[in-house]
Amino acid sequence: MTEPLLQVRDLTLHFYPARRLFRRGPALRAVDGVSFDIAPGETLGLVGESGCGKSSLGKALLNLYRPSSGEVRMQGQPISALSDRQMRPLRRDMQMIFQDPFESLNARHTVGAILEEPLIIHREGDRTSRQKRVAALLDQVGLPQSAQDKYPHEFSGGQRQRIGIARAIALQPKLLICDEAVSALDVSVQAQILNLLLEIQRELGLSMLFISHDISVVQHVSDRIAVMYLGEIVEIGEAQTVRRHPAHPYTQALLAAVPQLGAEQLPVVALEGDMPSPMDMPTGCRFAGRCPHRRPKCEETAPRLESESLHSRAVACHFWREISPQLP
Predict the structure, then answer these.
(1) How far apart are the C-alpha atoms of 315 and 225, rounded to whole Å?
(2) Are 207 and 42 in contact (CB under 8 A)?
(3) Which candidate, 55, 68, 78, 125, has a CA 20 to 30 Å from the CA of 293?
(4) Do 184 and 154 have their domain in common?
């Protein structure tokens, strides 16, 4: 069996407010006991509403946020306790594509300087070889050579995201974390960027963690899908299984909101209320207050991810076998 490229075990990320007269308020539990693996060449889609902790999780994997507890392993090496200096050699293998293609690029630098910077930091070649690499990167993401002499504000949103992708793959990483990489773009441009990412993944053999609030995007690019709600993963499994037979009520609600052209539309799932505050978690199931299938047990006992080996997925719901569509 192939060793996972990335292993995440019981990862938590809590933020604490400033102390007030020797008292510390309740923690904001952005990520709460998350576990998953990503295999070499695999794309894991991470989906959930805004505020559920997806982006915080992505940054915690790169140590941009220090995890409160748990463990992250990259190619078998524990990295969650490493210092910034110790992390630097590993960052060439783990890169992120950010949501905003303008804010993530230095407006004072030309595109050529932006793409050359990671090569300089990691001491890759001399100036001539770096300039050749920059030219190759621009060609790889579908931009003209003249782009390297221009500034980010001279490009459209889709072109800026291509520059961000070029920067992320400059060091030929093994893992890309795409944090809402297409959510700020028009729908037609989204398709182009998604196709570019898939093409680059095939060329370089990359693994990807694709983070998005839009399950209709995630289901088309992912090998597996993890559904996140209020800091926890409530369902994870093969993309086709999750798409065709969603088990958790929250997954069912996300998919029911997506028009299914040429396929049977899932019944509408009406959710009640809003997502609870991550500073005031419910005692039982975190989704119980919005779930149309809730029962007394749901409000008393928190469910754990329950594995179903036959269809390679796990679900955190006490009654998912009763309420989910039957698997073949």
Answers:
(1) 12
(2) yes
(3) 55
(4) no
* 224-229 and 232-238 beta bridge pairing: antiparallel
**CATH no. for residue 270?**
3.40.50.300
Same domain, 137 and 232: no
User: Is the same domain home to 113 and 32?
Assistant: no
Q: Are residues 44 and 143 in the same domain?
A: no
Task: Identify the pLDDT of residue 271.
Answer: 75
Say yes or no: 76 and 138 in one domain.
no
What separation in angstroms does the CA of 213 have from each of 4, 128, 135, 198, 259?
25, 42, 34, 19, 16
Cα–Cα distance measured from residue 296 to residue 101, given in angstroms and rounded to the nearest whole number = 46
Give the model confidence (pLDDT) of 115-152 as tens digits.
Answer: 999 999 999 989 999 999 999 999 999 999 999 999 99
pLDDT digits (tens, 9 = 90+) for 62-86: 999 999 999 999 999 999 889 989 9
Q: Give the pair of three-digit tokens for residue 274.
A: 């809003």
| pLDDT computed for residue 272 by the predictor | 73
For the chain, the domain total comes to: 2
Per the structure, the complete domain to which residue 126 belongs is given by 106-163
Residues 166-212: tens digit of each pLDDT: 999 999 999 999 999 988 888 889 999 999 999 999 999 999 999 99
61 touches 209 (CB < 8 A): yes
